[in-house]
């Protein structure tokens, strides 16, 4: 899977101001294992640019920090 270069240009955007440092809910629930914690900030981010748009990450986040940008063609 391709590593992401830019965190703003991936399908899953994490609002770092809302992400809880101790939480790993989105990472555990993702079937593709594409989400990870930034070891420096403790915030979640999309590590690999691959997504099934299945949405459990967005639903399970306790603080609504995740936005999944569903591509127009899949809507
Ligand atoms: S939408 Fe699904 S595949 Fe994409 S990051 Fe969230 S849980 Fe993972
Ligand atoms: S589920 Fe939400 S609060 Fe928890 S790690 Fe993911 S983005 Fe952060």
Automatic annotation (TrEMBL):
| Residues of the signal peptide | none
Give the superkingdom in one word.
Answer: Bacteria
Q: Which UniProt keywords apply?
A: 4Fe-4S, Iron, Iron-sulfur, Metal-binding
Name by which UniProt lists this protein: 4Fe-4S ferredoxin-type domain-containing protein
Q: Which Pfam families match?
A: Fer4_7
The record's annotation in PROSITE patterns points to: 4FE4S_FER_1, 4FE4S_FER_2
Instruction: Give start and end of each 4Fe-4S ferredoxin-type domain.
Output: 10-40, 42-71
- Which GO molecular function annotation, any one, does this entry have? metal ion binding
From the record, what ranges are coiled-coil? none
The family database entries (InterPro entries) matched by this protein are listed as: 4Fe4S_Fe-S-bd, 4Fe4S_Fe_S_CS, Fe-S_Ferredoxin
Query: Record's Gene3D superfamilies?
Result: 3.30.70.20
Is the keyword Metal-binding assigned to this protein? yes
Q: Does the keyword Isomerase apply?
A: no
């Amino acid at each position: 899977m391709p590593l992401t270069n830019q965190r703003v240009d991936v399908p899953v955007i994490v609002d770092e101001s809302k992400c809880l440092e101790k939480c790993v809910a989105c990472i555990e629930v993702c079937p593709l294992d594409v989400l990870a914690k930034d070891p420096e900030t403790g915030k979640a981010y999309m590590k690999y640019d691959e997504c099934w748009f299945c949405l459990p990450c967005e639903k399970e986040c306790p603080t609504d920090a995740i936005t999944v940008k569903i591509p127009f063609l899949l809507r």
